[in-house]
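Please, structure for the following, as tokens.
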Amino acid sequence: MSFEFEFEQLERADLKVDAVYKGGSYGDVRDDPIGKILPCVNLGGFRYNRVGANYGFVVLYSSLAEPDWPDSLDRRTGRFVYYGDNRKSGCELHDTKRGGNVILRDTFSWSRNDEERKKVPPFFVFTKTGVGRNVRFRGIAVPGALALRPEESLSALWRFDENGRFQNYQAVFTILDEPVIKREFIDDVLAGNPHSSNSPKNWLEWIEKRKYNPLIAEAIHIHRKKEEQLPKHGTEHMLMLQEIIAFFEKDPYAFESCAKLIAQYMDSRITKIDLTRPYRDGGRDALGEYSIGHGEDDITVDFALEAKCYSIDNGVGVKETSRLISRLRHRQFGIFVTTSYVSKQAYEEIRKDDHPVVILSGADIIRILEKVGVNTKKQVSKWLSDNFKKPG
């Protein structure tokens, strides 16, 4: 069980990774726990404190539940992807009410310069728990990530709504390996001294050398539950998935072409996928090549892909996954793509036996489509008709 802090404790509480900070009971904005922990000038996704002309700190707050702006935390790499605050047409990229995109523009620019990096404030990441106003602290973050180019760390994406096209930022942060942020550091930040003897070690090291020491956590569970592999019922994500299932309903084998494209969206290093002939594929719906290296001296690793277009209530079992596993050769991996989910037994066998198989379930498919700007049922319908011939 994670740490929990009561509302009355928050003013002097330390920040512990994954601890829950409870909201108040006034019934209005006074219940907000973040403002009690860290004095902020506003509510919303971007919250900050100024010390003179500089930012003292910036809070990034996310529900992790907006389909159009899928903020995400990858605990295996320590990377936190956060979207800016220009979320509808009518404003320029940096002309936002709360100034969040200006913060992203400036801090990411400063982060790449040894002198200006000292102006980068600590970013404190919080996410919604789903219980009242309670929030969970995710860590102290810095702009960018190891091995990412500037344009990959902060990119301006085009989106459109009923009123036209507009741009918004997608930013990649690194959560630093600092399990506890002491109250003494917060006090120093508020006093205008963020680089003191109370500062977290990895925060100072990033400021001085731009060295990334991410908080990396390995999963201890060996399989994802059914509810983790599928979108929640009644959501736009579920409607998007059901649109895909309905499109290929009359010929599930035609889904193989869709699975091929999904895999390529997932990872740009997939350089080649060739579909095998239906019904005579020997258990592999496609064979492909994955490129590893740095350009002219790349090597390729072979992989096999299998696709199953099942209804959301029809899980993939051991029979289907074993079919792929049994045909993987030495130094070859597999990708299993399904619009449904992989059963507990099949999933456990893959993980317990260390089979090199990537599982893309229904929820994964939707997350991958969102990465390429397909965010609604209507957009999924258009994407399907643009890319595939409807069976039947």
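The mean pLDDT is 92. DSSP finds twelve helices and 17 strands in the chain.
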